[in-house]
């Protein structure tokens, strides 16, 4: 079944004080484009995240957002540069003496000074990826499910529109079947009116009819259009990406419809062609949402 290119999915994972939240959303795009936002502490996992997402999503502009909160004491080292802190304190005391300024300075004040207190993350990279991957896979499952649900709605709408075109095609076929006979009757009547005689050169009339029949016949176009409609309906029932294939089929449907319109020599057929082109244009807009 087809999938929509728009969707949203969220996944979370918690373990030993480490909390992960992954959000995935996408909009229509001609190709596949993956953008990832994640904390600096997990930046080394960006390529793995992109590869995992790209393996599951074939088309669309995809935004992946990762939130990571580490409340665990594992993998975190807090270092205080005591020598640097002492130098800061000494210089501050000298400054106070020289300027005769007075004021208490606390240990917390010293630790806020540049490079006195540093936090190092020595997390196990394989552990982090294994935990993040759980949240990522959950988000992808929810994301894919939403895409499938929207895709099912789109497929139902597209099939209904394809059935409408099929109905219009049958009506055009029925109307075009009597075009030659109508033309013969009108031409013969016109000749008699102009020549003021009931005698008509049947050979010449037959020649004109053959020429007209060749110009106004739309049976080949109707046959090809019917084939495109059948192919279109089969494609929307297949699994896997099909947006580009559907776009090509719709182009061919539109081409055959234009040819029928250019050959049409009857108002009723022209009106049906206009209605058909309107439906095809609606389909073209709709399939822009398909992966």
Short description:
The protein has 291 residues and is an alpha+beta fold. Among the domains are: 46 residues, no CATH class; 142 residues, no CATH class. The chain is built from 9 helices and 6 strands.
Please characterize this protein's 3D structure:
The chain has 291 residues and is of the alpha+beta class. Among the domains are: 76-121, no CATH class; 148-289, no CATH class. Helices cover 60% and strands 16% of the residues. It contains 9 helices and 6 strands, in the order E-E-E-H-E-E-H-H-E-H-H-H-H-H-H. A 4-stranded mixed sheet has the order 1-2-4-3. Strands 5-6 form a two-stranded antiparallel sheet. Helix 1 links the parallel strand 3 and strand 4 (60-70). The model has no long low-confidence stretch (mean pLDDT 84).
